[in-house]
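A.,

Following up on our hallway conversation. Structure tokens first:
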């Protein structure tokens, strides 16, 4: 048995060695030759898992230690018997704390009770963001067309209404081009025209969800963690961002450990082996932190302004900052 693993996935070394030949490689360097005789891949977003990589290989399962799967050709994998597993929800609290850090910085002069927060995508992450923000006093609008159709419209707001009513808009959707609710360029020129002049846009989902050039041209304020063409991000967009981070919103210790565990368990199920993943990280104990305490304590755990300054000073180090990030401790 052979397993190829992205060398930047944390907490995984030693898990598979008792069962398989294990090859660790940088995610963007994994090639067709590397995976030809592999039974499984454990990757992150930097490995394009498509026909070019997988055709003719022995790969039975691709497990991504991420919530997103837009780096994987799901249609090709399904048609060719390659199982795909993701770690949906693994980093929800990490992203919640990224959004919270942004709010703590940008709402210094405003009380939550005076602001409307629009949450687009109310899944694992969006639900947490919406619930905490509401407890802090924000007026919260939840937008999730698939859920609204499945569960009924009560409790959900239409996309156009969220755009027109939000002081802050935060995006928590997958990146999709097909289907009834494609999200590619979801925030485009037409959407931006519906925003209030001072609306702040937050994106910690996927870079392609936002048309960065349209956002840049609009003059709206924004804070970004995910970008078009990573790691070669647009310097003009970076310069204009109020806060900018190198795709690390979900990079908490707990989130990373959970993602690694979920990926390992998925591969084990498909290959029919029993592996033991012993997390070196204490799980987060959720609690109802107040707005004031969150704002006061956030800097101890995540100095988002320092991270933003570092990225703006050295954008060419985007990938280095991401791969060598000192995972944050979740604290609520």
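Then the amino acids I'd put at each of the 332 positions:
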């Amino acid at each position: 048995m052979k397993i190829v693993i992205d060398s930047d996935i944390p907490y995984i070394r030693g898990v598979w060695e008792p069962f398989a030949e294990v090859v660790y490689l940088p995610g963007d360097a994994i090639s067709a030759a590397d995976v030809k005789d592999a039974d499984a891949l454990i990757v992150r977003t930097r490995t394009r898992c498509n026909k070019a990589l997988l055709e003719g290989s022995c790969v039975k399962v691709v497990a991504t230690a991420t919530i997103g799967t837009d780096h994987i050709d799901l249609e090709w994998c399904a048609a060719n018997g390659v199982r795909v597993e993701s770690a949906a929800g693994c980093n929800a609290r990490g992203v919640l704390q990224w959004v919270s850090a942004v709010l703590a910085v940008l709402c210094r002069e405003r009380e939550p009770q005076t602001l409307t927060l629009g949450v687009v995508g109310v899944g694992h992450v969006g639900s947490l963001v919406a619930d905490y923000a509401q407890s802090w006093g924000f007026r919260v609008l939840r937008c999730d067309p698939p859920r609204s159709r499945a569960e009924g419209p009560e409790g959900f707001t239409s996309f156009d209404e969220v755009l027109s009513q939000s002081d802050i808009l935060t995006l928590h959707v997958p990146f999709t081009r097909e289907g009834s609710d494609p999200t590619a360029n979801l925030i485009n020129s037409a959407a931006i025209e519906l925003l209030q002049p001072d609306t702040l846009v937050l994106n910690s989902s996927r870079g392609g969800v936002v048309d960065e050039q349209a956002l840049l041209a609009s003059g709206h304020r924004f804070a970004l963690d995910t970008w078009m063409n990573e790691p070669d991000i647009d310097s003009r967009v970076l310069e204009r961002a109020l806060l900018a981070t190198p795709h690390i919103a979900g990079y908490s210790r707990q989130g990373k450990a959970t993602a690694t565990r979920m990926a390992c368990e998925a591969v084990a199920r498909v290959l029919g082996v029993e592996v033991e993943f012993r997390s070196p990280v204490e799980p987060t104990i959720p609690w109802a932190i107040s707005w004031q305490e969150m704002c006061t304590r956030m800097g101890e755990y995540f100095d988002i302004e320092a991270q933003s300054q570092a990225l703006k000073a050295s954008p060419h180090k985007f990938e280095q900052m991401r791969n060598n990030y000192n995972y944050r401790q979740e604290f609520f």
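The domain at 92-244 is CATH 3.40.50.720 (Rossmann fold). Curious whether your intuition agrees with the design.

B.
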